[in-house]
Amino acid sequence: MTIAIGVLGVGRIGEMHAELIAQRIEGARLAGVFDLNGEAAKGVAAKFNCRQFSDPEELMSSSDVDAIAICTSTDTHVDMLVKASKFEKPVFCEKPISLSLSETDRGLKAISDSKTPLMIGFNRRFDPSHRSVRDSVADGSIGDVHIARITSRDPAPPPVEYAKVSGGIFVDMTIHDFDMARYVVGSEIVSVYATGAVRVVPALAEIGDLDTVALMLQHANGAITMVDNSRQAVYGYDQRVEVFGSKGLVGSDNPLMTSTVSRNAQGTQLAKMPYFFLDRYIPSYIAEWNEFIAVASGKIAPAVTGADGRASLVAGLAAWKSVREGRLVKTSEIN
Amino acid sequence: MTIAIGVLGVGRIGEMHAELIAQRIEGARLAGVFDLNGEAAKGVAAKFNCRQFSDPEELMSSSDVDAIAICTSTDTHVDMLVKASKFEKPVFCEKPISLSLSETDRGLKAISDSKTPLMIGFNRRFDPSHRSVRDSVADGSIGDVHIARITSRDPAPPPVEYAKVSGGIFVDMTIHDFDMARYVVGSEIVSVYATGAVRVVPALAEIGDLDTVALMLQHANGAITMVDNSRQAVYGYDQRVEVFGSKGLVGSDNPLMTSTVSRNAQGTQLAKMPYFFLDRYIPSYIAEWNEFIAVASGKIAPAVTGADGRASLVAGLAAWKSVREGRLVKTSEIN
Amino acid sequence: MTIAIGVLGVGRIGEMHAELIAQRIEGARLAGVFDLNGEAAKGVAAKFNCRQFSDPEELMSSSDVDAIAICTSTDTHVDMLVKASKFEKPVFCEKPISLSLSETDRGLKAISDSKTPLMIGFNRRFDPSHRSVRDSVADGSIGDVHIARITSRDPAPPPVEYAKVSGGIFVDMTIHDFDMARYVVGSEIVSVYATGAVRVVPALAEIGDLDTVALMLQHANGAITMVDNSRQAVYGYDQRVEVFGSKGLVGSDNPLMTSTVSRNAQGTQLAKMPYFFLDRYIPSYIAEWNEFIAVASGKIAPAVTGADGRASLVAGLAAWKSVREGRLVKTSEIN
Amino acid sequence: MTIAIGVLGVGRIGEMHAELIAQRIEGARLAGVFDLNGEAAKGVAAKFNCRQFSDPEELMSSSDVDAIAICTSTDTHVDMLVKASKFEKPVFCEKPISLSLSETDRGLKAISDSKTPLMIGFNRRFDPSHRSVRDSVADGSIGDVHIARITSRDPAPPPVEYAKVSGGIFVDMTIHDFDMARYVVGSEIVSVYATGAVRVVPALAEIGDLDTVALMLQHANGAITMVDNSRQAVYGYDQRVEVFGSKGLVGSDNPLMTSTVSRNAQGTQLAKMPYFFLDRYIPSYIAEWNEFIAVASGKIAPAVTGADGRASLVAGLAAWKSVREGRLVKTSEIN
User: Fold this and answer.
1) What chain B residue is nearest to A258 in terms of C-alpha separation?
2) Please, where are the H alpha helices in chain A?
3) Distance from D123 to chain B by nearest Cα, in Å?
4) Fold of the A3-116 domain
5) CA D282, CA A324: separation in Å to the nearest integer?
C-alpha cells in the first residue's frame, strides 16, 4: 500500500518534505500541494509531477489524499489542525504547533476529540546518532541518568523579521533541545533556569530576543540537563547531545563532511562540519517520514505526539519567564 | 535541459543506477530500461514509471533517449559499446570494460572512431573523501608523492560462481584500487608486484583465484603505492586511501555509520563502519551521475575515460602475471 | 643555578611533588621534607635522599632551602603562609588556600606585606591541552568569547570523612573549574547559579554535601560558562574544557591511555581514559614546577597568584549560597 | 632489592638510558658510566651523581655493578657482548647487535655459552599501544592473521656520515619494523620483497642507500606484512602498526601531542604529532627498563632475545639482497 500525502505549505521546509515524499520514501507518494503563494505551489507541483490544490480543505478532503502534512507558517498550524481533524486522516505537523499554549491546546483538543493520529515534526529524534544515544539510555546501558548536555548552534542567524514572529529563541530554536532533553533523558522537564545575551545580532535586543543562551533543566527523575544555543557558530551546525549516568556516558558528536585527514608541519586537519540542517539532517527527515508512513498505515502509534509538542512549548515559555524574572521557573507555573 | 538516460541491464548495480537517475539526479530523467530478464526490466520500469525497451538497440536508437548507460554483465560490455557507438549519444559504461584487453581495445576503438563521449564507472573517484585526497595532491599541498597506501576490503566474499566469471580478484576487485592509485597519485602505473593467498574461501583455490592480496605498484613519477585487499573484513567495508609526500600526508579514513560515542569502564566505543558499498558510496554514485550529466550536456569532457578503464585492466592482468611468475611485471609487458 | 625546595606535608599530593622535584624538574633539587607524621616524612626523605626537618620553621629558615612548598592539610595553609612570609623565600601553596575567606585574606595579607612571591597550585592551568585552549582564546583566534563549557568528573568519590572537612564539592572540586573558567575565558566571574544533587553517595546528604552539580557562571566580559561535576564517572577522569566565540571554537578533549583502535562486527573500540589525576596530569605538575622554578629564580612573576586562589574560593562560596538560597548569587555578595 | 646498572656508551641514546635508570625506574640504580669520550662520561656521571669508569671491563667487573647496558656504537657491540659474557651479569644491548651476521653469531655464542641473560633494546615492543596490538593478536581477538601494515617514518634524515656506517636504511631503520612484524604477527618472516628510492637526500644515492622504502614480508603462518619507511615525514614521527585477521582488526594509531580540538570556518584542527622518538617513546623505554629489571632480578626470562636481534638483522640483509637483485628473497638464503 502506498500512502498518498498532501503537503500544506511549500516554503523551505515544506518543499523539502515534498521532495522527500516524492522521491525518497518507500511506500509514500506526493499526492499534491497547496500554498498561499500559488506560484510556489505551482512550481513544486510541476517539479514533482503532482496536483496543485487551490485551498487547504480541497487538499484535505481529496479522495486522492491519504494523509496530511502541515508545513505552513506557525501561526496557521492550529487552524489547519482543527480543519484537518474533520477528515479522519493521519496528520503530520511541523514544530512548534503554535507560539500560544491556549491555541496549542485548542488544536490538540480537536485532534484528540476526533482521534486523529498526529505526529509532530521533531526530526532530530530520528537522527541515527541522537537516536542511538536515546536507545543506550532507554536500554539501561548508562544506568541512572545524572547529567545531560546539549549544544545546539546554528551557523548564521535568521533575519530579524523572522525572529520577530518566531516566538524568540527559546520557542523557535531551543524548542528542539527541550524535546531532545525529554527524549534522551526519558523524563519530563520540571523546571527551567535560563539566561542569555545578545552577542551576535544587536538588533535582536530591540525586539527583546536573545542569540546566545544557556539553560539548566531539572527532570522529574532527578537528572539535570544543560543546554546552550548560539545563533552563529562560524564553523557550522553544531549539534551535540550527551548523557552521563551511573554506568557510563553516551553522546552524539558532530559528524564531519568527509573523512579526510591531513597532516603537515602545522598539525592535523580534519574536514568541515555540516553547514546547516540540510547538510546534517536529511537522514533524520527520511526516517521521520518512514515513521509517519508506518503511523498512517496504522502499524504503529505516533512516537512524537501532540503532548510532546506541547511540553516543549511549555519549557520554552518557562525559559522566557525565567530570563525575564531572573529565577528558576517550574514548568507547572506555565498554563 | 534534462538528459534522458536509458539504462541497459538492471541487475543489482543497474537498478541502483536507474533509481538514482529517476530520483536523485538534477537534470536527469530515466527514459527507460532494458534487461535480458524481461521480468526484472518490467519491475524496474513500473517502479520508476519509465519505458521498458525490448532490445538494446531499440533503447539506444530511441528518440526519447539522450544518453546510454551500460550496466549489463561484463562479458556484454564491448558489444554494447560497439552498438552504442553508432548512435552519437554519450555513453556511461560500468567497470571493467572487459576481462580481455583485445576486446577492450575493440570496444574503445569503436567509441574512439565515432567520437562518442564515454565515461567509465569508477565511482570511487567521486567519493568526497577520496576526491579530497586527490585534490590535495593535485594542488601541490603534499608536495612530491613518495608513498601511497590503499586498503580496500569487502565485508563478505561473493559466490564462487561469480568469482569464476569475474576475472579473479585483481580484475574484479583490485581494479578499483589500480584506478584509485592512478587517480590520487596522478601518475601511470609502470610495474606491479603482487602476492596473495586463499585465507577465507578455500574453494577459490580450486579455480585459481585469491581472496587476500597485497601489491606494490611503481608509478612513472617515482611514487610507490601499496595496496591490500581482502574479500572478508568482518567489521565492514574498509576503504582507505592515503598519500604521503614531501610536504605532508593526506588520507581518507573510514567514515562511521553514526557519530555516537560511548564510554564505560571497559573503554570507549564508536559506531560501526558502513557494511558495504550501498552504505558507503551512494554519494559517490550521485556525484558520478552529476558528472555524467555535465558530460552528456557537452559542458565537460569525461573525467574517467576509456583509457582509464584500459589502464586498470592492464594493471590487473599484470598482477595476475606477477603472482603466477613470482616476479615484478612491467605494465608494458601486457598487450 | 639550582633551586632547593623544601616540602611541607608529604601526604599523597606532597609526596608526588617531592618525587617530581627530586627527579623530574630541571634546575630544582629536593632540599628536604617535613610532615606531622614523622614516619611518612622519614620514608620520603630516605626514598629521595633528602633531609627530614623536625618542624616547619626549621625547614623554612634553613639556609639549604631556597623555596617553600606548602602541601600540608588545607586547614594549616594560612598559618604556614604567615610563617613563610617571614623568610623572604618564594612560596608554592596547594589549593585551596583556605576554606574561609577571612583566613585566606589573613594569609594573603602576610604574603603581600612581605612581598613574598607566591604561586598557587592550580595545576590544570599547566596541562598542555587546557593551556592551548587558553592560548587560542588569548591570542584572539576564537574572537569574543560567548560560551564556555567545562566538564570535570572524578572516577570515584572520596571518603565521607574527607568530604566533611573539604568545604564541600564546590570548594574542594569545582574550585579547579572556577579557576579554569577564569583562566580560559580571561575574565572574572561576576555571578554563579548552582544546583546539584546527591546521586552517588547517599551519606553526603547527611552532611549537606552534593556529588552531582551543575553551574552557570557569568563573566565580566559577558561570557557564560557552564560547569558540571560528578564525583563518580565509572569510565575515568573526565576533564574537558571548551570555549566558543565569534570566530570559532577550541576545546581540550579527553586523551586516551593508548592510541589503539579495534574494529570488529560490534563496532569500533578505543582505549580507556586516564583513571585519575596521576594518570592524566603528571605533565601539568611538571610544567607547574618548571614555572615555579622560573618564579623562584626571579625570572617571571607568578602566573597563578593569591588573588587567583581567592577568586575561586569566592566563586565556591557563592555556589554554596546559590544552592542554599535557590537563586543566582553575585560574587560581590561574598565577603 | 635494587639493581645497579652500569651504562657503556653515553651518546644520545646511552645518556637517555642513564637518565631513565637514575630517575625513573623503580628498583634500579645508575651505578656508573663509561664512554670513550671521557668528557661526555664525566658530564653524565656528574649530572646523575654516579661513578665514571675508565674502561668497559672495569665497569663490567665492578662489584658495584649488577647489570650491564651496552649503548656504545654498533660496531663495538659484539666485542662488548663477548667481554660481558665473562662476568655472569645480565646484559642489555641496544639494537642492532651488529651489521654483520657472523659477528652477531660470534657475540650471541659467547652470551649463550656463558648462559648470560641478554635482552635486546627493541623498545617499540614496550610501547603501550603497539603492545596492546600484539596482545589482541596473541589472545585470539582478531582470529587468524591475514595482513599486517606497518608505517614507520622519521621526521628528518640523519647525517649522511651516519648513514654510511649504519648498515643502510633496512638495517638501521626498518630493523625496528621487522621486529615489530614478528612481534605483532607472532610468526617468523620467511621472505622479503623490498623496493625503494632516494627521494629526500640525493647524497644517499652515492653511498647506495635509500630514504623511501616499501616492503612485503611473508610470515611462516601465511600472514603478509606490508611495511613502508621514509626518512622524512615533515609532520613528525609517524609510527603505526595494524593487524587484520579473520575476526577483525587492531591497530595503534599515532598519538597527538595534546587533545586540543579547534573548529573554524576552514575546518577542524587537531594537535601535532610527536616530533621524534623522545616525544613518543619515553614510556616504552621506561617499560623496557622495568622489564630488564625483572630479568636482572631473575624473575622472568628476557622477552626480547638475541635470537630476536638476529632475526631482524637477517630480514634487513634479505631486504638489501631483494633490492639489489630485484626479486623476492627467502630469509633462509641469508647466512
Assistant:
1) B129
2) 12-23, 38-48, 56-61, 77-84, 101-113, 128-138, 160-164, 169-172, 174-185, 203-206, 277-280, 282-296, 306-325
3) 26
4) Rossmann fold (3.40.50)
5) 56
pLDDT digits (tens, 9 = 90+) for D72-118: 999 999 999 999 999 999 999 999 999 999 999 999 999 999 999 99
pTM for the model:
0.96
Kindly report the nearest CA distance between residue A192 and chain D, in angstroms.
30
* C-alpha span between B197 and B195 (Å, rounded): 7
Mean pLDDT, all residues of chain D:
97
Q: Which tens digit of pLDDT belongs to each residue from B205-226? A: 999 999 999 999 999 999 999 9
Q: Does D259 touch chain A (CB under 8 A)?
A: no
The C-alpha R_g of chain C, in whole angstroms, comes to: 20
Closest residue of chain B to D244, computed from CA coordinates: B233
**Min distance B247 CA to chain D CA atoms (Å):** 6
D 192-231 near B (Cβ less than 8 A): 193, 195-197, 199-200, 212, 214, 216, 218, 222, 224, 226, 228, 230
Fold (topology level) of D125-279+311-333: Dihydrodipicolinate Reductase; domain 2 (3.30.360)
CATH of domain C125-276+311-333: 3.30.360.10
Strands (E), B50-156: 51-52, 67-70, 91-93, 118-120, 145-153
Complex confidence, ipTM: 0.95
**Does A201 have pLDDT greater than 90?**
yes
CATH of domain A125-280+311-333: 3.30.360.10
CA-nearest residue to D238 within chain A is A263
Question: What part of C 86-115 touches A (C-beta under 8 Å)?
Answer: none
Q: How far is C269 from chain B (nearest CA, A)?
A: 5
Q: Do C147 and A197 touch (CB under 8 A)?
A: no
Chain segment B275-293, per-residue pLDDT in tens: 999 999 999 999 999 999 9
Indicate the residue type of A165.
V
Ranges of residues in chain B whose predicted pLDDT is under 50: none
Kindly state whether A266 is in contact with chain D, defined as any CB-CB distance less than 8 angstroms: yes
